[in-house]
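Table 4 source record.
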Amino acid sequence: MRDPRWRSSSMLLAASGILLIGVGIYFLVLRPPLLPEDVRYMGLTPTELQSIGPRLTAWLTQVFRVMGGYVAATGVLALTLATTSFREHRGIAGLGAGIAGGLSIGLMAAVNFMIHSDFKWVLLAMALVWAASIAMFVREITTPPKVAIKPGARP
């Protein structure tokens, strides 16, 4: 086992995991099928919305259940990774966390900017926490450890 101390990179990745679990729970339990931004993005008229609304709502409820499960699962995996091999500074853990962050919260934030979502800044902040964990991981493994000098000792 490598250095098991909690470092900034692991704490940031753990925080990212907890944030993602929260977002997953939001999609599973709290998010309504259609938000005002969804209707705005689709450009539906009130008549069109009345026509397809009930079918669309039923379908989106299922879509967001699946999405919420995947987002929460990503958070659980990030939290698990942060407490194990990422914390031990295993290179493959850093690589996996970087790729996973880009494909999960990174892509989610980017798409929310493309659709002009009301939540784009919140998601960007979450993506930046994940990115900061990767940046700190790289810094921690490339910076030599500081050697403590005992008082009175000569360097």
